[in-house]
Amino acid sequence: MPPREAPQRQRRIAYIVRDALPPTRADLLTLFGDELPRYGIEAELVGQAGDSATHPARTPAWRSGGLHAVGSLGSRFASVLTPMWDALGLLRARRGARLECIQVRDKIASALLGRLAASLLGVPFVYWMSFPIVEGYRQRRDHVRRSRRRLAWLAHALRAAASHHILYRLVLPAAHHVFVQSAAMAAALAARGVPSARMTAVPMGIDAARFARAAIDPSVDPRLARRRVVLYLGRVARSRQSDFLLEVADQLRADVPDLLMVIAGDAPSAEEMAWMRAEVARRGLDTHVLLTGWLPQAAALGFAVRAEVGLSPIPRGALFDVSSPTKLIEYMALGIPSVVNDIPDQADVIAASGAGLCVAMEAPLFAAAVRRLLHDPGFAAAMGSRGPAWVAAHRTYTILGRLVADSYAGILPPRGA
Questions:
Q1: Of 113, 265, 296, 403, which one is least surrounded by beta carbons within 10 A?
Q2: Cβ atoms of 312 and 373 closer than 8 Å
Q3: CA torsion 53→267→221→282, rounded to 10°?
């Protein structure tokens, strides 16, 4: 689908983001850095610097409007100072460009700031919800309650309550539009009173050029030789129940002795990765599980194209039921048959594409599904072959860019207004 020609004057939006700057996530870097400028929409990114700023190899250049990093996510005072830092970043963005919209992503206090700034400037206010932050705060509150640290619990309880009031009473009702991560998230917000007509679901996608299988060099890592490679591509974390992957590997190794489960991805902290490595050792899975840690995308994709099956287990619950996992779309784009669990977005994609198997997140069911694909190459190949065409038609950032641009056409003020 060819992009529209960009108009003579690019339209600028201020976009306050939770992610560290410069951005590395594709839904920021590709969607707002590459695709939307083709429709005449550029983003002045506002936020805080992160560790990636000290790792140039991990930090692609921002290719859209300006980049206004004020403060650091590494600061011990970041949670308190972030709204003030964002206010300063917003002032810098406004000095450099005429702003036609203020948009905030996954921030609570800064969303209230954005709503006020949009009102003062007389421009639309938009909220982008890629994660249920309030529900995350509630989960943290409940986790601390179990540890019986009363003062810590009180602090987390107050944050959860205040965030709920600000987001659901003051921010979302005032937003001209709300972009959400999935149809399930849109349904959850509609149940809270957000009009469906003011929401657009933008699921995760991929950059088609980067996921063209023929252009990817397969990994020559000797540890893959003569192994049945099963892949998990993504974050390792306790909150994601990443040790579930080890339960699946444990169930498979008896009748798939040459199994190698490659877990390609980083953890949010060294402590979390140490926990995962300790779990591998405790279960005696050192010869069946390869934890790579962080990898450049080219190296991760090199491992991916050596895999026979891709896995995407996502814990059920308020946090992840409304998510849209990227890893399933990546497997499909590469022609890898997948085994996923039944969170709504994954279940819908598998039902529509026929590119994998969807089961409940139970180790025996996952192991049985993987075993079926490994033991029936024709069945696996047929499933894998359906993925690339479906992704090309529904989940590339070229497709999603048009969807978002069409939404902005109804949000931004008329030209010349």
A1: 296
A2: no
A3: 150
- Domain at 11-205+397-411: CATH architecture: 3-Layer(aba) Sandwich (3.40)
**For residue 71, what are the contacts with CB-CB under 8 A and spacing of at least 6?**
48, 49, 78, 81, 82, 85
Q: Is CATH 3.40.50.2000 the classification given to domain 213-393?
A: yes
Residue 122, sorted as left (phi over 0), alpha (psi -120 to 50) or beta, turns out to be: left
Tokens of 402: 């048009």
CA distance 60 to 80: 28
What is the rounded distance in angstroms from the CA atom of residue 380 to the CA atom of residue 309? 8
pLDDT one-digit tens code per residue, 217-271: 999 999 999 999 999 999 999 999 999 999 999 999 999 999 999 999 999 999 9
Angle (CA) 364-368-371 rounded to 5° is: 135
User: Cβ neighbours of residue 187 under 8 Å, at least 6 residues apart?
Assistant: none
Q: What is the DSSP letter of 90?
A: H
- With cut-offs at 50, 70 and 90, classify the pLDDT of residue 79: confident
**H or E element in which residue 231 lies:** strand 228-233
SS3 375: helix
- What end-to-end distance do the CA atoms of the chain give, in Å? 30
Residue the block writes with tokens 């619990």: 153
Q: Where are the domains of the chain?
A: 11-205+397-411, 213-393
358 three-state secondary structure: strand
What is the helix (H) or strand (E) element at residue 241, kind and residue range? Answer: none
Distances (CA, A) of 335 to 128, 138, 244: 31, 38, 24
Whether the link from the prior residue into 22 is cis, omega within 30° of 0, is yes
**Model pLDDT for residues 339-359, shown as the tens digit of each residue:** 999 999 999 999 999 999 999
Q: What does pTM read for this prediction?
A: 0.91
